[in-house]
Amino acid sequence: MRQKPRYPRACSYYIPVSEDNYEWVLCWNEGLSEPIWSPRRQVPVGGIKIGKPGMDYPNPVDYQQVEAMLTHFNRSHWLPICLDHEGYLLDGQHRLQVCRRKGLLLVDAIVQCADHERIRHEARERRAEEEKQRKHKRRDIFGNWLTKAEWKEQYGTARGLDYNQ
User: Concatenated DSSP letters for 58-112?
Assistant: First the structure.
């Protein structure tokens, strides 16, 4: 039986995101030394900045999409908007317009930390180092990484498992 999504209490100026829709944020932080994204509840809509200098791509609002979102609003699909650490909108311009059209004063968000470039760089370096170490290894049938010597010790050739396959 499917569980009903868990919602904080809604009111006329705030529609909260369900806990289930915040859980996907945690997967963005996997494999990192510290989290890049953190959830924030009840961010003031009026304090969100748009048009950060240096943004690579403009993403104009499609008002037909905003109308469709308002017409077919489904609370179980309501996701947080993405902000940087300075309060600039990174993603969710249509959701922000829906908030404004509904007269909401608060919105849930996920906020990118100020040090995200350093954290991502460290994660890329760590993955490159792990890949370098794995270069001379193969996965066995259980998903373990083994060198050629470890493979021969564990499996030999009698079982029909060849290291070079």
Answer: -----HHHHHHHHHT--GGG---EEE-TTSBEEE-HHHHHHHHHHT-SEEEEEEE
Q: Residue 45's pLDDT is what?
A: 93
For the chain, the structural domain boundaries read 19-118, 134-165
Span 19-118: which CATH code? Answer: 3.90.1530.10
CB 78 within 8 A of CB 8: no
C-beta separation of 84 from 48 below 8 A: no
DSSP 151: H
Contacts by 95-98, CB closer than 8 A, 24 or more apart = 95/69, 96/45, 96/48, 96/50, 97/61, 97/63, 97/66, 98/66, 98/69, 98/70, 98/73
The low-confidence residues of the chain, meaning pLDDT below 70, are: 1-11, 25-26, 54-58, 134-141, 156-165
Residues β-bridged to residue 145: 139
